[in-house]
Specification:
Elements (H helix, E strand, L loop, with lengths): L4 E5 L10 H6 L4 E9 H5 L5 H20 L5 E5 L1 H12 L3 E5 L4 H14 L3 E4 L22 H10 L24 H9 L13 H12 L3 H8 L12 H5 L5 H11 L4 H20 L19 H9 L5 H13 L4 H14 L4 H11 L5 H12 L13 H8 L4 H6 L19 H6 L9 H11 L3
Parallel strand pairs: 1-2, 1-4, 2-3, 4-5
Helix pairs in contact: 3-7, 4-5, 6-12, 11-12, 12-17, 14-15, 15-17, 16-17
The structure holds flavin-adenine dinucleotide (FAD).
């Protein structure tokens, strides 16, 4: 049994259940669960209003859960590495525990901590993911580049069992006080006003959602409904997974244990998440650089980019997705694919501009999942069919056949009945004149030809 003081530096693992970092730190005589509001993360624009509001809920909820067990969350502000090392020295901490990160930023943070703390730093794997990046490797390569092959290995991979909540925590005498929760909230609120339909953050909320998801018929219906835009039949666990309020390992474990027929499809999505994490860990530059360059010379069309961002492209399904993003800070996966294909292929604008907008608004906005899904759609990533273009009208017929998703998110079209809502330009002139809705930004045929020419097809 180790003794002394240890610090659990929490990052994207804001939970007490199944948290290897907290679990290890709690074995010491005294434990400081620490979160640092990192100036560099804020200055990089990575804490926009939606994620800031969600984070404030997470920190408050975590502090409450820790207090129930005799501990508390110490929140500091500044440079995470300097703050942690200074605290470790002041406390004479024997150990600092941290979850392995995959982004360039996280890898750099880890190196800096290692330089200052040496062997006192312990990195824990598979905290954010169910399988650690690098744990599964194809022969001769440092990561999997094809999802199918990764998924087959992933299904057979060994996983740890979820860890219990530490029963009792003891906090040592702190050398200086942390920020009060009210101050934390005020600092995060300075990011700006969050989306009106944002989900509340925190482990308690996340666990409630996980429980009702795995324990209900929703998982069984998932394979059927996962692409049905109006049904909204996905788990909406992504923000809780992103902030680590819910452990991916526990979600996978519980979905498997329930043995629901839909569990397989749900697990497949968690495998996509692990897949993108292992890819970014090996190629952190792919947050910006093309994973597979296609010699693209992207167009520059600021007005078109702005129309896409605002949900005013004149293609109702695309606009519905973009409006959902602005209203909820979240978008259905099928809509993410359609809107991203529209930007990067139909408009042939740089995927990075789209990814940036998504990162600014998505409450689950995540470097691994966002940038690499964008690359997948743009055809610069791991899609084995990089030049497929999603036609928003055909997608509408398949995934919003009654038009309910569009009517929900594009109020100008709410009065248009049935699937006609997807083609407002076909309505009679009088009806069209009554709608305050733009003409299509581009003709789909011409855009497809332009894209094919650009890709040399
Ligand atoms: C252009 C684009 C950008 C995206 N950006 C993000 C992002 O920033 N953050 C993010 O978490 N997801 C992102 N995704 C993936 C996916 O759209 C979301 O994870 C999903 O919509 C979240 O809803 P859910 O929790 O209801 O998912 P469910 O369908 O219930 O799936 C369960 C979980 O599996 C994971 N998952 C599902 N699909 C994917 C996927 N394609 N890639 C990786 N993980 C997946 C998520 O963690 C999700 O919570 C993006 C997809 C696209 C096409």
């Amino acid at each position: 049994m180790p003794d002394g003081v240890s610090i659990a530096l929490l990052t994207c693992d804001l939970r007490v259940h199944d948290n290897p970092v907290l679990h290890a730190a709690a074995r010491d005589t005294a434990t400081v669960p620490l979160f640092v509001l990192d100036d560099a993360v804020r200055e990089a624009g990575f804490v926009p209003p939606n994620r800031a509001a969600f984070l404030a809920d997470c920190l408050e909820d975590l502090d409450r859960s820790l207090r129930d067990r005799g501990g508390s969350l110490l929140v500091l502000a500044g440079d995470a590495v300097e703050q942690t090392a200074r605290l470790a020295d002041a406390l004479g901490a024997a150990r600092v525990h941290l979850a392995e990160g995959v982004s360039g930023f996280a890898q750099h943070r880890e190196q800096r901590l290692r330089a200052l703390l040496g062997p006192r730093l312990t990195i824990h794997q598979a905290v954010a993911t169910t399988v650690a990046p690098g744990a599964l490797l194809p022969g001769g390569r440092d990561h999997y580049a094809v999802f199918g092959a990764y998924h087959r290995r992933w299904l057979l991979a060994e996983r740890r069992a979820p860890l219990p909540v530490p029963r009792k925590l003891t906090v040592p005498q702190l050398p200086w006080p942390g920020l009060e929760q009210a101050e934390v909230r005020a600092r995060l609120a300075a990011a700006g006003r969050p989306a009106p339909g944002l989900l509340p953050g925190g482990e308690s909320q996340g666990r409630r959602r996980l429980r009702s998801w795995v324990g209900s018929n929703a998982v069984a219906a998932y394979p059927e409904l996962q692409d049905d835009l109006a049904a909204d039949g996905t788990s909406r666990l992504s923000p809780y997974l992103h902030f680590g309020c819910v452990s991916a390992t526990e979600a996978a474990h519980r979905a498997t244990k329930e043995g629901s027929p839909g569990a397989e499809a749900f697990l497949r999505q968690l495998a996509w998440r692990d897949f993108h994490h292992q890819l970014l860990a090996a190629r952190p530059d792919c947050a910006r650089a093309d994973y597979r360059p296609r010699q693209d010379h992207w167009r520059s069309a600021p007005a078109e980019l702005e129309a896409w961002r605002a949900g005013r492209t004149g293609y109702p399904l695309v606009d519905a997705g973009m409006r959902q993003l602005l209203h909820e800070g979240w978008m259905h996966n099928r809509a993410r694919m359609i809107t991203a294909s529209f930007l990067s292929k139909t408009l042939y604008l740089d995927w990075r501009a789209g990814a940036e907008h998504f990162l600014r608004h998505l409450v689950d906005g995540d470097v691994a999942n966002n940038q690499l899904n964008w690359q997948w759609v743009a055809g610069t990533g791991t899609d084995t069919r990089p030049n497929r273009v999603l036609n928003p009208l055909r997608q509408a017929d398949r995934f919003d056949p009654r038009g309910d998703y569009v009517r929900r998110w594009v109020p100008e079209l709410a009065a248009v009945a049935g699937p006609a809502v997807h083609r407002p330009w076909e309505l009679d002139a009088a009806e069209r004149a009554r709608l305050d809705y733009p003409e299509p930004l581009v003709a789909l045929d011409a855009a497809l030809t332009r894209f094919r020419l650009a890709r040399g097809l």
